[in-house]
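Sharing a chain and its predicted structure for anyone who wants a worked example. Both blocks are below, sequence first, tokens second.
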Amino acid sequence: MLHLRDTLTGEKRELSPIAGDVRLYVCGVTPYSEAHLGHALFSIVFDVLRRYLEWRGYGVRHIQNFTDIDDKLIERSHDTGTPVEDLAERYSDAYMAQLTRLNVLPATEYPRATEEIPNIISFIEGLVGKGVAYASGGDVYYRVREKADYGKLSKRDVDDLRSGARVDLSELKDDPLDFALWKGAKPGEPHWDSPWGPGRPGWHIECSAMATNALGEQIDIHGGGADLIFPHHENEIAQSESFTGKAPFASFWVHNALLQLGEEKMSKSVGNIIGIDEVLDRYGTDALRMFIVTSHYRSPVTYGEEALDSARAGAERLRQAAFSKGVANGHSLDPTEARERFTEAMDDDLNTPRALAALFDLARAINRAHDEGHDAGAAQATLRELAGVLGFTLHEPPHRDENAAPFVDLLVNLRSELREAKQYALADRVRDGLVELGVELHDGPEGTEWSFR
């Protein structure tokens, strides 16, 4: 069965849903500008989790939010003169289109903070009523020291946090550690009526309200990037458990490591971003997914063109093995071992590198079976199935021109001669080299035909 590592406990343990379907909440994007490759990373990571859960027979209720009211959106609105709601709509729509190009399954729901204001206000009222939050000058703050185990997710001590806290004189807090649940309206900002006057919700409360409204007081898996552990997810735990009186808020906290460009994480706020469409246009859907799942989701991924070139070649090797045709005159290739290795790897905290190794070994076995005249049909069906669990489309990429045709003919003939001489290892090297150059091979009774992909 699937075992996941929980960030809160640091333990890897078996997933056992609270009741019925797996309740999965993933923190989504703040749509104030174009999504970047870092957003593609977390989208693909949790798409793989969702796909694997469903493949293993779990039902999944998957919620991913849009933070469509936030300081960054307001700042961008002021800078561009574009209304906040127009910015949010534009970049939310763009991100949804990119998810389709990434072959990411749609979530069950995509709640937006601005559509949840009554629910958010009720949540804050509940916290005030319990004495763990207080109104001050039109704002409402959560009392961090009322939560005795605050810091348990990020492994931070409250007293250490206090010593490093900065005091904003515009905020009327009882304690510098307290965080905003509701922010009083400022001139030119979007606002809603509330018991504390006009204003808007704070970032952290939005996710707690949306998650509990869509999934209930306790959820199975809460996901997001590692940069959200503190303060966002730490604050979600505090306010959610205080509101419901139930712990844990999430049975598993699952965090993906970040995409790096050089020594820094890729971030819109830093400005070192590479757009999703830019990479998809150049490399394709499967290449980008291969680039990401080649690393374990808890290991940082470093962007590089060489790595993406390699990922594209790897995805093409899987595609060719999955659809290549051969003449079967012998026994059938049994894919059982590959399926077992794949499942064992994925059950171990979604170990996609090991799962991919099983697929590449299966692809090589399929190629060898065709070379030796064996039936690989069942193995190819298994390869297509398992590749689909990881979200690969296995679609044929656009064809190239044929300027290099004479040289390809030479290499194809060389491979045929090596196979006749039973030099299969060398023949496989030639095949792999041609695949990396964008050449697709088709072995048949009349010999080998080829085409550019």
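Comments welcome. Residues 364 and 427 are 12 Å apart (CA to CA).
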